[in-house]
Amino acid sequence: MVNVSMGEEKTMQKRKLLRNSNGQVLGLPMYLIIVMIVAVAVIAAVIYMIPQGTRTLMPQITGGAVLTGDGTLGEVNITDNVEITVISNDDNRDPVSDATVIVTGLGGTTTLTDNGDGTYSGSVTATLAPNVNEANLKLIVKAPGFEDYEDEDGIVVLRG
Question: Using an 8 Å Cβ cutoff, are 65 and 159 in contact?
Answer without folding.
Answer: no
